[in-house]
Design a protein that fits this description.
Number of strands: 15
Shape: globular
Radius of gyration: 24 Å
Structural class: alpha/beta
Strand content: 15-25%
Order of helices and strands: EHEEHEHEHEHEHEEHEHEHEHHEEHE
């Protein structure tokens, strides 16, 4: 789990540039996944070892400044309600505007950390001009330039100091979040599992506005089911209530152990479903893909299911070791199999391999196919172990960790998955100096 930071402010002050810089920092440190859509309104970042989610509220405002003036109060109020800290961004080129004052008025009333970020300060003269932002009544400010990154370190240093610690409580029941696009059948899926109409279900996308927990205790399984509001593309989130739902859904994914990703079979595994998948993957959650409404697919043939599954795996490469089930909530086809699979993925995510067994298995694999020489240097891996954490992470100790390339890391991951069952679980591999 991680904290949520909301970036608020009027249009054209550089929020998205700052947001993208934070996301790029996260992707550069972990693993860049080719083809991931970059126009999302949520993302992961970390600084000084502390992870947090970033919400770009500015992207939800469409149209002219007049429309923004009408909606800004609602959007900022919803953002600050869910966020643990607020970055209020202004632009030194324009100085203090009326809309800046409107946002500042709201932020002065809340009891949450607010960081005033004066953007586009890239020379000494502009640093002097930033003094006028004291008039917003928010105290000290941070000067930065989102484009070249100057000043962002000081802001992030102060930001992570106030973010709450979110260590997982080991006594909690496992949390399974049901996620997906609006109207994919998430609420109907939970109603079918628990055998009662706990949630309102309509054909109108966006009926579910909140993330709600339900304790499930049947057939020897006990866990919390979380029904989340559907996540849409940023450009389609127009209503303030739906914006609120998106933020709650992002938090639900972060707080889950396993995400059950419902896909509407009549719409396919499109770009937004892939966005949700990668959000869960980057949060290192267990994932089960459930293709719902399979009974509505017309002209099914013998290989229709295989072709559909192949398209999904092409979209989620290279992380293809994910269970894919074809279900129908309406007829209750394979919905309990979905729960059994989710429980198995949770167990896979919790699996711990003894160090001796891990070395006995992986060192012969490495000896059979050692890392290729790079720049005339030969890498020798002598020891490996699983790192104690909430999800599978493995350290391989060698003489030249900087020369182990990404293809060899993927080779090790594939061998790991062959030898040990980590289906549905992201794996992190680290090369460390022996």
């Amino acid at each position: 789990m991680s904290a949520i930071v909301a970036i608020v402010g009027r249009p054209n002050v550089g929020k998205s540039t700052f947001f993208n810089r934070l996301i790029e920092r996260r992707e550069a440190i972990v693993d860049a996944v080719s083809g991931v859509t970059r126009d999302r309104h949520y993302g992961k970042s970390d600084w000084n070892g502390k992870e947090f989610s970033v919400i770009d509220t500015g992207g939800y405002v469409l149209g002219s400044d007049d429309i923004f003036e009408q909606e800004i109060d609602k959007q900022v109020e919803l953002a600050i309600e869910e966020a643990d800290a607020i970055v209020f961004m202004v632009n030194v080129e324009d100085g203090v505007t009326g809309m800046d004052e409107d946002v500042a008025l709201l932020l002065r009333r809340i009891n949450k950390p607010v960081f005033l970020a004066v953007n586009k300060v890239d020379n000494a003269k502009r640093a002097e001009d930033a003094v006028e932002f004291y008039s917003l009544g928010l105290g000290e400010y941070f000067t930065l330039s989102s484009i070249n990154g100057s000043g962002t370190g000081d802001l992030l240093d102060a930001l992570v100091e106030v973010l709450p610690e979110t260590e997982k409580d080991e006594s909690e029941l496992p949390r399974f979040a049901v996620v997906g696009r609006p109207n994919a059948g998430k609420s109907s899926f939970i109603n079918a599992l628990i055998g009662e109409d706990r949630y309102i279900v309509t054909d109108i996308a966006g009926t579910t506005r909140d993330s709600i927990d339900t304790k499930y205790n049947r057939f020897g399984f006990e866990f919390n089911l979380v029904d989340t509001a559907g996540i849409r593309r940023k450009a389609k989130v127009k209503e303030d209530l739906e914006f609120y739902s998106v933020m709650r859904s992002v938090r639900a994914i972060e707080h889950a152990d396993v995400c059950l990703l419902l896909v509407d079979a009549t719409r396919g595994f499109d770009g937004q479903v892939a966005n949700i998948f990668w959000l869960a993957q980057r949060n290192n959650k267990g994932i089960v893909i459930l293709v719902n409404k399979w009974d509505l697919v017309e002209n099914k043939e013998t290989n229709t299911m295989k072709h559909f599954e192949k398209k999904i795996k092409e979209a989620i490469e290279p992380f293809v070791d994910v269970p894919i089930l074809f279900i129908s909530v309406l007829t209750k086809q394979r919905i309990f199999k979905a729960i059994e699979t989710a429980v198995q993925v949770y167990e896979n995510r919790s699996r711990r391999i003894p160090t001796s067994k891990f070395n006995d298995t992986m060192l012969p694999v490495i000896e059979h196919y050692p890392p290729p020489a790079y720049k005339g240097k030969f890498v020798k891996i002598k020891f490996c172990m699983q790192i104690p954490s909430h999800y599978p992470q493995f350290a391989f100790y060698c003489n030249l960790p900087q020369y182990v390339r990404e293809p060899y890391r993927r080779y090790l991951e594939n061998k790991l998955r062959e030898e040990f069952d980590f289906t549905g679980v992201p794996i992190s591999i680290f090369m460390r100096k022996k």
